[in-house]
């Protein structure tokens, strides 16, 4: 695999977790082509964690990278003109630009987000919308993918976005392997609205994770809403409400995405015919699998296998 250079730009006041997420996910592994460097305007960067990071790269490596990732700061702050110029230059030469959390403020100030959809942490999203009127703000998403420009919502959504990038670059199998090593969900549904403090607390603290695990073991079967509710010991109406509160999506949409994820893995790791893949992941027919692949991934199962298959 050709080397793919990733520059993580550590801004003054960077949040340690925002910085650590891409550094962990894009660290060197035998199965990935990533060559990752933490860069900054100065050699040492103060963090909000009370310690200083010594970086290995500078703005020249930002300009030369294939992907630039900008972790967030708290609070968002104005960046030096040299930093904004390096981000703008990288964007102009076709570099993939990524922000985590409030890192979107730096991309916005550099003009990278003008005319695009973007997101940031819910706590600062009103400030972001006022500061960058040329950007279309998506408030209830985990991340936004605009092709060569990607932004994530608050902090841990950076995990979702970075795994999404790996999945796009290298396929679901590699992304899922990295997720398992992180003990992270390979793919979460819903948006950050589920994490915004609610005026009335949700009653009860019992999780539906056991029911979701039960369903994942039966993706090849026709699991119905009634069966999910029966397993959870709830009415269908209560299941729908609780499921959406926990995941940000409906049970049937969650099942569909889980089945597509399973189909991607089967296409990557087996030579099973497409109709067998459709049956084994619970989508029934090859035509139905093709329909959902086209709608969700904008490709066909055969083309996907050609790109990511072993």
Oligomeric organization of the protein chains: single chain
Structural class: alpha/beta
Which regions contain 5 or more consecutive residues with pLDDT less than 50? 191-205
Into which percent range does the helicity of residues fall?
40-55%
Beta-sheet strand percentage?
A: 5-15%
CATH topology of the largest domain: Rossmann fold
Q: Quick one: biggest sheet?
A: 6 strands, mixed
Mean of pLDDT? 89
**CATH class identity of the largest domain:** Alpha Beta
The CATH superfamily name of the largest domain is Class I glutamine amidotransferase (GATase) domain
The spatial strand order of the largest sheet comes to 2-1-5-6-10-9
Q: What string, H for helix and E for strand, traces the elements in order?
A: EHEEEHEHEHEHEEEHHHHHHHHH
Shape designation: globular
Pfam families: DJ-1_PfpI, HTH_18
Protein name: Helix-turn-helix domain-containing protein
Keywords: Transcription, Transcription regulation
Organism: Amycolatopsis minnesotensis
Key terms:
alpha/beta, globular, 14 helices, 310 residues, two-stranded antiparallel ribbon, 45% helix, Arc Repressor Mutant, subunit A
Report on this model:
The strands form three sheets. The protein has a six-stranded mixed beta sheet, sandwiched between helices. The protein has two domains: 4-182, Rossmann fold, CATH 3.40.50.880; 200-310, Arc Repressor Mutant, subunit A (Orthogonal Bundle), CATH 1.10.10.60. With 310 residues, the protein is an alpha/beta fold. It is built from 14 helices and ten strands. Residues 191-205 have low confidence and may be disordered. Helix 1 (16-25) runs parallel beside helix 6 (157-170), helix 6 (157-170) packs antiparallel against helix 7 and helix 12 (274-280) crosses helix 13 (286-297). The radius of gyration is 21 Å and the shape is globular. The longest helix has 19 residues, at 251-269. It starts with a strand and ends with a helix. It comes from Amycolatopsis minnesotensis. It holds the Pfam family HTH_18.
């Amino acid at each position: 695999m050709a080397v793919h250079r990733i520059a993580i730009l550590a801004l003054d006041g960077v949040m340690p977790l925002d910085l650590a997420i891409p550094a962990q996910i894009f660290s060197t592994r035998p199965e990935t082509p990533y060559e990752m460097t933490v860069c900054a305007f100065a050699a040492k960067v103060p963090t909000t964690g009370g310690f200083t990071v010594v970086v290995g790269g500078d703005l020249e490596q930002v300009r030369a990278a294939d992907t630039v990732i900008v972790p967030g700061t708290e609070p968002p702050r104005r960046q030096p003109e040299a930093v904004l110029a390096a981000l703008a230059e990288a964007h102009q030469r076709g570099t993939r630009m990524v922000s985590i959390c409030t890192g979107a403020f730096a991309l916005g100030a550099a003009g990278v987000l003008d005319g695009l959809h973007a997101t940031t942490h819910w706590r600062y999203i009103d400030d972001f919308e006022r500061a960058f009127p040329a950007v279309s703000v998506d408030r209830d998403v985990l991340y936004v993918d605009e092709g060569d420009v990607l932004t994530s919502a608050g902090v841990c959504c950076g995990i979702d976005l970075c795994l999404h990038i790996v999945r796009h670059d290298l396929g679901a199998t590699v992304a899922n392997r990295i997720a398992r090593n992180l003990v992270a969900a390979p793919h979460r549904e819903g948006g950050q609205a589920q994490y915004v403090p609610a005026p009335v607390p949700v009653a009860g603290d019992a999780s539906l994770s056991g029911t979701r695990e039960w369903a994942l073991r039966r993706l090849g079967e026709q699991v119905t809403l009634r069966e999910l509710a029966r397993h959870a010991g709830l009415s269908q109406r209560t299941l729908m409400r609780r499921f959406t509160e926990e995941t940000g999506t409906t049970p049937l949409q969650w099942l569909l995405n889980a089945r597509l994820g399973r189909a991607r893995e089967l296409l990557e790791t087996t030579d099973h015919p497409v109709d067998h893949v459709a049956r084994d992941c619970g989508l029934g027919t090859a035509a139905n699998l093709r329909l959902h692949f086209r709608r969700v991934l904008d490709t066909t199962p055969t083309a996907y296998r050609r790109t990511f298959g072993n």
